[in-house]
Amino acid sequence: MEVCVKLSAENIFTTHKLKDQEIYLCLIQTTEEQPEKEWLPAYHFHICLLDGRKIGECNLRVGHNDKTYLGGNIGYQIDENFRGHHYAAKACKLLFVLAREHELGYLIITCEPNNIASLRTCERLGGTLLEIADIPEISDMYQVGKRKVNIYRFVL
User: Fold this and answer.
1) Tell me, what CATH number does 133's domain have?
2) pTM assigned to the model
3) Along the 156 residues of the chain, how does pLDDT read in single tens digits?
4) Contact 96, 124 (CB under 8 A)
5) Considering the domain boundaries, does residue 1 fall inside one?
6) Distance between CA atoms of 34 and 40, rounded to whole angstroms?
7) What span, in angstroms and rounded, lies between the C-alpha atoms of 49 and 45?
8) Does 9 reside within a domain?
9) Alpha helices, DSSP H only, in the chain?
10) Of 4, 16, 25, 72, whose CB is crowded by the most CB atoms within 10 A?
């Protein structure tokens, strides 16, 4: 099932409220869908501490298709010096707010089975493990060395 939303001036939601007691998400850019690559429209953010220091990045892909089933709706990375504080989970919770505004209903987050930190993040967020999937050889993910992913579903 493919669900896709075009991001335009009319439906890009304000993101200034995407913050909690420790972090905020600073919008870097939005990107439009590229159907020929099966890329969905997306928001891209810096993850920042309230004092303004950038500690990582995250993104939200808006919609669902085969590519987001394997690659996820949310991607994140936390800079090494700031790991261990659950900042990835906190950023994901903020992205859940934005996803609800887009009326997505659910999100997929995937991670490699040996990525213990991301596995814990998905568990901390209350995701349901759907499966551990093999990456098809034709996938972009396979081309960069990924062979399996844990696929978690989050009901919004």
Assistant:
1) 3.40.630.30
2) 0.90
3) 334 344 444 555 667 789 999 999 999 999 999 999 889 999 999 999 999 999 999 999 999 999 999 999 999 999 999 999 999 999 999 999 999 999 999 999 999 999 999 999 999 999 999 999 999 999 999 999 999 999 999 999
4) no
5) no
6) 7
7) 13
8) no
9) 66-71, 87-101, 116-124, 140-143
10) 25
